[in-house]
């Protein structure tokens, strides 16, 4: 077998591994959403708030890839569930930010803490060059996914036709 064919097989294997990783992460998110009693969009917003901290609803919408209205609705549901709260800015009382509550942080630690600990142990076995390679691959992959999400959202939806 030629080097080109071996390389193509390796690329295909990496792409299958990425898809399997995405499916596994999706399973964790689905399980976590159920544990929180949230839908997946609200869980994504809550994840952003717990990682990034306090932000405006507009900033949350941009980070989650949602419209302003959808983000506001998600914040409303998160607030009703006790996982987010709106806070008035001390300097500009017209400005309102959103932050995750202590209950949200506690539940997040309960769910993702063991994953983080095991991931840390797993990554600690890698040398610095491997870690930089992994980080670069993941950063590039995240940019690729975000760009294609925007592309998919921008494309017109195909008309649904009845298959006969």
Task: Set down the secondary structure blueprint.
Layout: H1 3-36, H2 40-52, H3 57-64, H4 68-81, E1 84-88, E2 96-100, H5 102-124, H6 128-154
Antiparallel strand pairs: 1-2
Helix pairs in contact: 2-3, 2-4, 3-4
Shape: globular
The whole-angstrom Rg is: 20 Å
Helix content: over 70%
Summed over residues and divided by their number, the pLDDT gives a mean of 93
- Whole-Å distance between the termini? 44 Å
Mind describing the biggest β-sheet?
A: 2 strands, antiparallel
State the CATH superfamily name of the domain at 25-124. Winged helix-like DNA-binding domain superfamily/Winged helix DNA-binding domain
CATH topology of the domain at 25-124: Arc Repressor Mutant, subunit A
Q: How many DSSP-defined strands?
A: 2
Taken in chain order, the helices and strands follow as HHHHEEHH
- What would you call the structural class? mainly alpha
Multimeric status of the protein: single chain
Which CATH architecture of the domain at 25-124 is right? Orthogonal Bundle
What is the CATH top level name of the domain at 25-124? Answer: Mainly Alpha
Beta content comes to: 5-15%
Number of helices: 6
Tell me the strand order in the biggest sheet: 1-2
pLDDT < 50 runs, ≥5 residues: none
How does this model look, in words?
By secondary structure, the chain is mainly α. It has a domain at 25-124: Winged helix-like DNA-binding domain superfamily/Winged helix DNA-binding domain (Arc Repressor Mutant, subunit A, Orthogonal Bundle), CATH 1.10.10. The chain is built from 6 helices and 2 strands. A two-stranded antiparallel sheet has the order 1-2. The longest helix has 34 residues, at 3-36.
